[in-house]
UniProtKB/TrEMBL annotation:
Region feature Disordered, mapped onto this chain: 1-91, 408-440
Natural source organism: Coniochaeta pulveracea
Catalytic activity line of the entry: L-threonyl-[protein] + ATP = O-phospho-L-threonyl-[protein] + ADP + H(+); L-seryl-[protein] + ATP = O-phospho-L-seryl-[protein] + ADP + H(+)
Upper lineage: Eukaryota, Fungi, Dikarya, Ascomycota, Pezizomycotina
Protein kinase domain location: 109-403
Full protein name: cyclin-dependent kinase
Family the UniProt entry places it in: Belongs to the protein kinase superfamily. CMGC Ser/Thr protein kinase family. CDC2/CDKX subfamily.
Length: 470
């Protein structure tokens, strides 16, 4: 019987040899891969051990570094060619990232006397026990019933004061806390002590500041505000009681409880309830929720007028009365002088003068300040422009012609000195409005201003004086 034939698909000896070779190659690759992973793991462990050893050698017994680690090459180091390495190797930059640490206790200071109490805290004069230096100790006002903890006004004030470094901005030395750290209301700001605030000086002066002294104060104020605005900070409560003056004629801006950072463009919705009423810009009174540095410049204009007369310029009893005083001094707005003002929430229901009254409703700043020079009137008119877009910036104010005319600004070293009211003497305080508290903005409703200029057409204005026809 014939034998069964072999299939043509059966494996040959060559096929078996090829399969065995492929198997050996696969196993060799797997072995090499495992060997590579093992070497990488060993290198990583060796690096960690090396770093741990170096850290142990650098630290002392108490865990603190014995020697500061050098991050940049030495100036005397040389490279391989014998040239100074500092000429070729770039220096590494050192960035101070700061860190968290425990605040010192307020018991490090000895309270001497109270200075004043404001809307967002009280201030006392104190002496640091270790150095004997005098500071102003400000305690933040915190409502124990407020479950939100530290108010945002306090956080903003601490942040802004820590970031600011300018000769016309008060300096924050440190933040200290009470002995019982469980009570969040025991938070104090240790600020540099400045002898006077501008408001108390104006109240006690027998005569107003000289023109040269007014220029010196305004230049310092504009310089400080320019620094703030360049760093995207709005103060939002500039007034004479928040401007400090030391016995060397140096002015410093203080009280940043209502200040905040803004950008360009500013946030689309900001609180309208800012700035003390007598220094509040008309756009805020009319309900603007988007504003910028121009509100601080309006406040500077109000301060300018107060320096000239020793009296607050616009002493309104409420928002409606304040608007009436503004329109009486600066004129009534229209679409030419203030385009788009009617679109502001509180401006839609205002009744403003028309006809003959509207023609006589211009600015009365020249009549109000007859002794002010033409350049001074120009600057004051610009600062108190109803349209915020027409007010000068702080930098533009510094370059104004008013400060280049005679009399020139008085040197700070020649500034007069005054007895300090921040000592043990009780200061004579007057009833003035406080800064606005957090909450909803005031609604002024429908108001009729159409008759506030009645009788003005009977005044004949001349060069620095006014005649009333009888």
């Amino acid at each position: 019987m014939a034998s069964k034939g072999k299939s043509r698909w059966a494996e040959t000896e060559e096929d078996a040899e090829l399969a065995a070779r492929q198997k050996r190659e696969k196993e060799e690759k797997k072995r090499m891969k495992a060997e590579k992973a093992r070497r990488q793991q060993e290198a990583l462990e060796a690096q960690k051990a090396k770093e741990a050893t170096a850290a142990t050698q650098e630290d002392g017994d108490d865990g603190r570094p014995v020697k500061r680690r050098r991050l940049s090459p030495e100036a005397s180091a040389t490279n391989g060619t014998g040239e100074a390495a500092s000429n070729t190797a770039p220096k590494l930059l050192r960035f101070n990232g700061g860190g968290f640490g425990k605040c010192r206790s307020v018991e490090n200071y000895d309270k001497l006397n109270d200075i004043e109490e404001g809307a967002y805290g009280w201030v006392a004069r104190a002496k640091e026990l270790a150095t004997g230096k005098i500071v102003a100790l400000k305690r933040l006002k915190i409502d124990p019933k407020d479950r939100s903890g530290l108010p945002v006004t306090g956080l903003r004030e601490i942040q802004i004061l820590r970031d600011c470094d300018h000769r016309n901005v008060v300096k924050l030395k440190e933040v200290v806390v009470g002995e019982d750290t469980r009570k969040i209301e025991n938070i104090f700001l240790a600020l540099e002590f400045v002898e006077h605030d501008l408001k108390s000086i104006l109240e006690d002066m027998p005569e107003p500041f000289l023109a040269s002294e007014v220029k010196t104060l305004l230049l310092q104020l504009a310089s400080g505000v320019s620094y703030l605005h360049d760093h995207w900070i709005l103060h939002r409560d500039l007034k004479t009681s928040n401007l400090l003056l030391n016995n060397r004629g140096q002015l410093k801006i203080a009280d940043f409880g209502m200040a905040r950072y803004v950008g360009d463009p500013p946030p689309p919705k900001l609180t309208q309830l800012v700035v003390t009423l007598w220094y509040r810009a008309p756009e805020l009174l009319l309900g603007a929720s988007r504003y910028g540095a121009a509100i601080d410049m309006w406040s500077i204009g109000c301060i300018f007028g107060e320096l000239l007369t020793r009296e607050p310029l616009l002493q309104g009893k409420n928002e409606v009365d304040e608007l009436g005083l503004i329109f009486d001094l600066c004129g009534v707005p229209n679409e030419d002088s203030w385009p788009g003002f009617r679109r502001l929430p509180n401006a839609r229901s205002l009744r403003l003068p028309s006809g003959k009254d509207a023609r006589t409703a211009g600015s009365a700043i020249r009549v109000r300040f007859p002794l002010l020079t033409t350049a001074g009137v120009s600057l004051l008119n610009g600062l108190l422009a109803l349209d915020p877009e027409k007010r000068p910036t702080a930098k533009e104010m510094l370059a104004h012609e008013y400060f280049r005319q005679d009399p020139k600004p008085k040197q700070e070293a020649m500034f007069p000195t005054f007895p300090s009211k921040a000592g043990q003497e009780r200061r004579r305080r007057r009833e003035t409005p406080n800064a606005p508290m957090r909450g909803g903005a005031a609604e002024i409703g429908a108001v009729d201003f159409s008759g506030i200029f009645t009788g003005r057409e009977r005044e004949e204005k001349g060069g620095g004086f006014a005649l009333r026809m009888v």
